Amino acid sequence: MSNRYLLLFLSFFLTFINLRAEQFNFPSGFTSDDVTSQSPMMMPAVWTYDDCVNWAIANNIDIRSAMLSVLESDQNIGMAKDAYLPYVGFSTNQSFTNYAAPAYGQTRNSYNSSYNINASWTIWEGNARKYRVETNKLFKIQQQLYGDDVVKNLQLGILQAYLNILYSAEAIDIARKSLEVSTAQAQRTKRLMETGRTSRVDYAQIESQKAQDEYNLVQAQSSYASAKVTLKNLLNLSLDYELNIQEVDFSDNLVNAPLPTKTQVFEIAMNWLPQFKSNELNKSIFNYNLKIAKAGYLPSISLNGGLGTAYNSTGGFSWGKQMKNFFNENIGLSFSVPIYDGNATRRAINIAKLQALDYDLTQTQLKNELSQTIENLFIESDNARAKYISGQTQLEATTLTAELVDRQFELGLVNPLELLTAHNNLLNARLELLQSKYMAILSNKTIDFYATRQVSIP
């Protein structure tokens, strides 16, 4: 073969490498810089639920980790595609030999060197490379689905934290109003004591209730601050940032809003939840893994070629002359048939078949977990609705009782203990009604999310 043909052969390999390298691109939508850069979003003065979700998606650490995993998956796809590329390498050997008793006409020392450029390319190996490329593409989709699952959990976590802040804010109003009532009662009791119409002991009991209501207000404010910290952690906001969320007035209609059936919610959620989609991809991945394992039984075809030359100090010619004379080129085709590999291929096939069984087990587990989640949501919703309806009746009764006892206390018909009991019953009724209201809203909104993939806060 002439030098011209061999150079064309090597040029083909190098050109193929350059063409394949130019095809690489980062996935559309974001780059590696987006993983670490700060979000360009502006912080709103008053945060709505949608503001919280949008900000969290742009800044949450778990979301960015998912982005990084997608970029890594794209690199893995590129590595799998690179298996189609040839190998081109240069090697040289330099050696020095000393002859203790050289033969006649032979020098005592000998210097030898060789220079080679080798290229090889696997033409076919049972399509294992193709299956690895497809498998890595599916892995990338699974990483994207993992990111979707992080967003889903983030939405539900923000929903709970957001409603908890609203609940805590209303609890503060209830505690403040209760303190206003106990403060008025203490002032009135003090006047009655000064006029001799009640004792100092009675006044001390009313003052004790006032102190308790002051503590309840402080505790409600502390719960409100803790609820804000929880939401700020989800949003990755600094501890010194003052978070203000939009006030929302939830009507009774939201508590008693009609809901789809459990079966409907289950079927809809199973069709869109990321973990179910990811498990469906596992079927194809397991199938590709089995094909890759079976490729171990198939032959492989490789194309090889190279350029080489050498020099020997005892050759009798100059270095340049020998390098020219010994210059050679070669090209060949290799065909390899596996006969026995120590059962490695058979074991790989058995492992791939066992992995395929994982799909059914995971699918059953996911269905059981989803069924339990939806069942618990409907139970919580029904309990909260029933408690809210009974709580409305109880609040009306305790309000009337508290007003009646308050008037009777002014007339001296009841003692302070009965007044305090009526006061505490009214406070508890208000808090229980508020709690059941927000528990029902949280359950209903979560059920709607599984059924519609959306959360709306009016």
**N-to-C span:** 80 Å
Strand fraction band?
5-15%
The stretches of 5 or more residues where confidence is low (pLDDT under 50) are 1-28
Indicate the structural class.
Answer: alpha+beta
Order of strands, widest sheet = 1-2-3-4
| Gross geometry | elongated
Number of strands: 4
Number of helices: 13
Helix coverage percent: 55-70%
Largest sheet: 4 strands, antiparallel
Order of helices and strands: HHHHEEHHHHHEHEHHH
Q: In angstroms, what is the radius of gyration?
A: 39 Å
Can you walk me through this structure?
The chain has 458 residues and is α+β, with helices and mostly antiparallel strands. Helix 4 (61-82) runs antiparallel to helix 5, helix 5 runs antiparallel to helix 6 and helix 8 crosses helix 13 (416-452). The termini are far apart. The longest helix is centred in the middle third of the chain and has 67 residues, at 128-194. It is 67% helix and 11% strand. It has 13 helices and four strands.
Q: What is the structure about, briefly put?
A:
The protein has 458 residues and is α+β, with helices and mostly antiparallel strands. It has helices spanning 3-22, 32-36, 49-59, 61-82, 128-194, 200-235, 252-255, 262-272, 274-294, 319-325, 344-356, 358-410, 416-452, and strands at 87-98, 109-124, 300-312, 328-336. The chain has a 4-stranded antiparallel β-sheet with strand order 1-2-3-4, with helices on one face.
Layout of SSEs?
Blueprint: H1 3-22, H2 32-36, H3 49-59, H4 61-82, E1 87-98, E2 109-124, H5 128-194, H6 200-235, H7 252-255, H8 262-272, H9 274-294, E3 300-312, H10 319-325, E4 328-336, H11 344-356, H12 358-410, H13 416-452
Antiparallel strand pairs: 1-2, 2-3, 3-4
Helix pairs in contact: 3-5, 4-5, 5-6, 5-9, 5-13, 8-12, 8-13, 9-11, 9-12, 12-13
